[in-house]
Structures are given as structure tokens and as C-alpha cells.
Write a sequence for this structure.
């Protein structure tokens, strides 16, 4: 009993410090290929040798990308503008999916959105203008400084997390409280462009170097990272030869329904194990894959132990990060975690004899 108590204290102590969350397995790896190829040749190479040309989810990914090479030149990434000018709206904050909501687009209504100057979103009241932006970092912050949209995004990413993104933030109670007694026009994290990732994912993260990037240069439709300019991005003609980045997916969605035990046995037999999620970056990456599942939940490698009276990952990682749905955490024998394949992709404890799709880590 004393050993168990010490073990639980050890886990709690290090989770509070956040230390245990650093001992994680990568769900994907970047590879720098020091061969000059056109964008299409680079894409074909990456698809043959790895998964695809590199995609970038957030600033953490950008750091990993830059740290994977000593090269200081230009290199292709998997973003291209070969969509015929078809622009799509995105939220600036990675992992927040844009859902069309026409009732929010209202040029005359108080505290509604408007597209301005055509490809960026802001909240506006037409009687009096106090320009600024809304940043988020756990809470909402109103920055009363005049900046263009890109400057506002850079400011929020440097000092907080990002521009306010998603309906919960942009139309939520916290947002409304910031407007009490004020009439203002503020940038929110909504933008649209015609750029797409090579593997078809809808990651919204962009890291353009606005001094060099011109979205109207119709012949420069492939994106590159400028390693000598903090890794920021620009575009170039796709047939030019450059080195490039590939990414290698370590996460596999198995679209067949199995019980939790059957899923665990399958993953251990053919890959490594069921996937563990120990930080929000991994959660967001897994969420993107969960959207393609054919069952309402997808098994993760998290199970409840009656003996220890705690949740544990089957690879012995401590549960530091959690994303439980409200009322979804049931602590009893024979329970394991299924992630919602839709909605907010929250975790719900399920009886482990239910059958769902599952994630393997290879």
C-alpha cells in the first residue's frame, strides 16, 4: 500500500510539473531530402519512400521541421495553389475546423462577422471603430492596437496562442463580455485562401513571409520554407529544383471494428501498439485521422485499472493530458477510452467489449 501511495504521489507530482508529458512518441517524423527536385518530383519521391511531402500543423511542427536539417536554403513543403483559385475559409488556430454558418455573416448586425478586406474575418460595429485584435491563451485578451490581420496573427502567436478562432471563442460569452461598454472592430482568426496540402488534409496553419510572398503571382503555385529566414514560407515556380521535406506517418487508422483487447492484440502483432496521446499536439493530429473513421468512436490505448484505481496508457505513459467529454469519464472495471470520431473528438469511457475502429502506432 505504501509503494502504491508513493507511486501515485510520484505521478501526480510530475504531472503537475508537466515533466511526464515530454516523454512521448512521435506520431510522425520529418525527413529532409538534400536532392534538387521539382515540386511534383519531390511529391512522388515522398509518397514512394515515406507518406507525402511535409505538412505543418503549428509552430511546434515548424520548430521540428527546422531542427531536422542544418540546411539554410530553400526547401519544398507540401502546400500548393493548384486549385484554380477556389478559396476556402479557415480558422487561424490549428485544430479548429471551420463550419459554414451564414447567420454569423452580417454586415449590419452588431457584433457579427464580415469578410474584410475580402479574405480575412473581423467583428465590426459600424457606429464607432476601435481597432484591435482578439488573442487567446486559455482566456480571451483584447489587444487595442491597430494592426493588419497578418500582424495581429503574428502578435497573438508570439505573445499568446493565436487569434480567436472557432464559434465557441468568437461568438461565446467571454467574447461578449469584452464588448460590454465598447463599440469596436476587431480582427478574429478567420481567413480564406486557395492553398492546399499535398495529402489532402485541411490543416489551416500558414507561416508566410509577407515581405517575399505574393499570393497573386499566378506562376508561383508551390510553397517552400525559407530556412535562412526563421523557416517562414514563400512560393515559387513548381518546376524549379529544390531540396524538400517529407513526413512519415506513424499513426494508422484501422477501419475495422474490434473490441479493445482485440484491437490491442492486432496492433501489437502487426505494428507496435494502440496509440497513446500525451499532449494537445498529438490530440489534434489524431483528431484529423479520426474524421475518417467508420465507427462513432475510435479506440485509444487508455484503460482503467481496478487494481491501481487509475487510468493508464498501455505503453506505461502517465496520463498528463486529458480530453474527456462532460460526464464521459466512468471509472469502473472493464472500461477503456474511445475518442469521438466526429464533433469535438472528446474521450468517452466505453465498455471494452464494444467494437470500434482503432488507432495503431507503428
Amino acid at each position: 500500500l505504501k509503494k502504491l501511495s508513493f507511486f501515485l504521489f510520484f505521478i501526480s507530482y510530475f504531472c503537475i510539473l508537466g515533466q511526464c508529458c515530454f516523454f512521448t512518441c512521435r506520431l510522425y517524423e520529418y525527413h529532409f531530402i538534400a536532392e534538387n527536385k521539382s515540386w511534383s518530383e519531390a511529391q512522388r519521391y515522398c509518397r514512394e519512400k515515406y507518406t507525402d511531402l511535409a505538412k505543418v500543423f503549428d509552430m511546434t511542427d515548424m520548430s521540428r521541421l527546422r531542427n531536422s536539417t542544418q540546411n539554410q536554403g530553400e526547401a519544398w513543403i507540401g502546400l500548393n495553389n493548384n486549385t484554380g483559385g477556389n478559396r476556402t475559409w479557415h480558422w487561424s488556430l490549428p485544430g479548429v475546423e471551420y463550419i459554414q454558418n451564414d447567420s454569423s455573416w452580417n454586415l449590419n448586425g452588431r457584433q457579427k462577422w464580415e469578410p474584410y478586406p475580402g479574405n480575412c474575418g473581423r467583428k465590426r460595429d459600424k457606429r464607432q471603430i476601435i481597432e484591435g485584435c482578439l488573442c487567446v491563451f486559455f482566456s480571451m485578451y483584447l489587444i487595442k492596437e491597430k494592426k493588419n490581420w497578418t500582424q495581429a496573427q503574428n502578435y497573438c502567436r508570439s505573445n499568446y496562442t493565436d487569434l480567436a478562432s472557432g464559434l465557441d471563442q468568437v461568438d461565446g460569452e467571454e467574447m461578449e463580455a469584452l464588448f460590454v461598454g465598447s463599440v469596436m472592430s476587431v480582427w478574429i482568426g478567420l481567413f480564406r485562401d486557395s492553398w492546399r496540402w499535398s495529402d489532402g488534409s485541411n490543416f489551416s496553419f500558414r507561416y508566410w513571409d509577407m515581405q517575399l510572398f505574393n499570393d497573386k503571382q499566378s506562376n508561383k503555385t508551390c510553397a517552400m520554407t525559407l530556412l535562412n529566414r526563421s523557416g517562414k514560407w514563400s512560393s515559387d515556380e513548381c518546376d524549379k529544383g529544390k531540396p524538400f521535406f517529407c513526413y512519415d506517418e506513424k499513426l494508422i487508422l484501422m477501419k475495422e471494428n474490434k473490441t479493445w483487447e482485440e484491437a490491442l492484440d492486432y496492433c501489437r502483432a502487426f505494428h507496435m501498439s494502440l496509440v497513446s496521446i500525451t499532449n494537445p499536439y498529438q490530440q489534434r493530429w489524431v483528431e484529423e485521422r479520426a474524421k475518417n473513421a467508420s465507427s462513432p468512436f475510435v479506440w485509444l490505448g487508455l484503460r482503467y485499472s481496478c487494481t491501481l484505481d487509475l487510468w493508464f496508457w498501455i505503453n506505461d505513459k502517465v496520463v498528463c493530458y486529458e480530453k474527456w467529454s462532460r460526464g464521459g469519464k466512468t471509472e469502473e472495471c472493464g472500461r477503456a477510452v474511445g475518442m469521438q470520431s466526429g464533433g469535438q473528438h472528446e474521450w468517452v469511457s466505453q465498455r471494452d467489449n464494444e467494437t470500434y475502429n482503432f488507432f495503431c502506432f507503428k
Observations:
- Confidence is low (pLDDT under 50) at residues 1-24, 106-111, 125-131.
- The two ends are 36 Å apart (CA to CA).
- The helical segments are 2-17, 39-49, 59-67, 149-159, 167-170, 173-179, 260-270, 280-290.
